[in-house]
Design goal:
single chain; alpha+beta; 9 helices; elongated; DNA-binding; NA-bd_OB-fold
DNA sequence: CCCCCCCC
């Protein structure tokens, strides 16, 4: 690994303009937070000196980056959100954590740093594993996986559901162990196993097979040979254990087709008549976005890039307006966000101007409050385990525009709102995309 | 749709 980049220790909260070259040393399974519905995924990143930092992905970023940050691969990373871990969670405060999101720039580097990774592990013999049962210690083993069972749900002692997936491993001396895949630890090229109170071994995360183990997969040991020859592995996403599965060979392994439960949506929509105003002047009124899916981008304005979110190969980075404001009517107020067109309409500005604006805005540079009532179409998202909703303004209608409009039931907001369902697709599309529809759809196919 | 944050 080169040395023209910063090291993990060089990056603190507030450090700007840094780039660190790292290897993805561990990749844990995505999990659901205990006290909120948030999904998160932890990674361990290692620099050239073997220092590590915990990196975390949240929500939709988990799937967006699943093929972007591969176990054992090397990357240049910049512009991650760097902060100290919450003292509430960590005994020792001051530990650094990176949050990886859409604005984090990640560049793959074609370097093989697996020796660096392997040098940081010591492997435990299968024979010694019983010693570690119930110890809650993390240890590493090295072996070959010869069977992967379907995932199943178990209840933990604390009443929480978690997924378990059993694996059968064999070591060089053909000794077999059964391992449940569980919420715990992973390592590179070996499997890091944690022993839990119910006396099974658990692993977590992703791993790779070491070449030398692949080569002794076909041995003359009867039972192992049998298992290997009978099993077919689905390996559509080789780096991801959960996508690998042994195809069952016995009738009892097949399940009858049953319930698919729909997820209840918490979204609610409202019409509100009132006034909007910016209360927090010092905010960012734009973000760099993908012109295809509107999601955040780490690229520079105008650059063509492959979008990790929509997978569009020739996405263009363009600014998109956003504003956090307060919505009031005679009965009260809510805070709400507007993005894209409603933000531009409210601010009486556009994304490019907002992007180039360096000073905190004044009423001269943009509209910060409304003189007259306007009509807002607001989406509320109820937050589980939280009393407050988040609100978003989907579009804004000036009452003068609908005065005398006989076409009731349709919002005459063509140049104000974002495209919404009850506008004709042909009319709304042309308003917000400079490209033709054909260009849009051909991009999505790639 | 999109932003922010977000966990042990």
């Amino acid at each position: 690994m080169g040395d023209k980049f910063q090291l993990i220790h060089d990056v603190s909260p507030g450090t700007t303009g840094w780039t660190v070259k790292v290897v993805v040393a561990e990749k844990f399974s995505p999990k659901v937070a205990q006290r909120s519905p948030t999904k998160y995924q932890n990674l361990t990143l290692m620099d050239s000196e073997g220092s590590t930092v915990q990196a975390t992905l949240y929500g939709q970023n988990i799937t967006a980056f699943q093929d972007e940050l591969l176990l054992g691969k090397t990357y240049l990373i910049s512009n991650a959100l760097v902060k100290e871990t919450n003292a509430e969670y960590k005994a020792k405060s001051g530990e650094i954590q990176w949050t990886i999101s859409g604005r984090t720039r990640i560049r793959r580097v074609e370097e093989n740093n697996s020796n660096l990774l392997i040098s940081t592990y010591s492997f435990t013999d299968f024979e010694d594993l019983p010693k570690y049962m119930d110890s809650n210690l993390d240890i590493s083993v090295i072996g070959m996986i010869i069977d992967i069972k379907p995932r199943r749900i178990i209840q933990t002692r604390f009443g929480k559901e978690c997924q378990v997936q059993d694996l059968v491993l064999v070591n060089k001396r053909k000794k077999l162990i059964l391992i449940g895949k569980h919420l715990k630890v992973t390592s590179f090229n070996g499997l890091s196993i944690s022993t839990k109170a119910d006396s099974s071994f658990f692993i977590d995360g992703e791993f790779e097979l070491v070449e030398e183990f692949k080569s002794w997969g076909h041995t003359n040991s009867e039972i192992i040979d049998n298992m290997i020859s009978e099993k077919h592995y689905l390996t559509s996403t080789p780096s991801k254990l959960s996508s690998k599965l042994s195809v069952p060979t016995a009738e009892k392994d097949f399940t009858e087709i049953k319930n698919i439960q729909g997820l209840k949506t918490a979204k609610q929509f409202f019409w509100i008549k009132g006034k909007a105003s910016v209360k927090v002047l010092n905010q960012t009124y734009w973000y760099m976005s993908c012109n295809n899916c509107n999601k955040i981008s780490s690229e520079n304005y105008g650059d063509i890039y492959p979008c990790v979110f929509c997978k569009c190969t020739d996405a263009k980075a363009i600014p998109r307006a956003k504003v956090y404001m307060q919505l009031t009517d005679p009965t009260g107020y809510i805070n709400a966000t507007a993005i894209g067109n409603p933000a531009e309409y409210f601010l009486q500005s556009n994304a490019e101007i907002l992007m180039n604006q360096t000073l905190i805005p004044t009423a001269a540079s943009m509209r910060l409050s409304m003189d007259e009532d306007e009509i807002f179409y607001v989406k509320a998202i109820t937050q589980e385990l939280s009393t407050d909703c988040k609100f978003e303004i989907l579009f804004i209608v000036n009452p003068s525009q609908i005065a005398g409009d006989k076409n009731t039931g349709k919002a005459p907001v063509e140049h104000i709102g974002e495209p919404i369902k009850f506008l004709e697709p042909t009319t709304k599309r042309s308003l917000f995309h400079s490209d033709t529809d054909d260009a849009q759809s051909s991009k999505k196919k790639t």
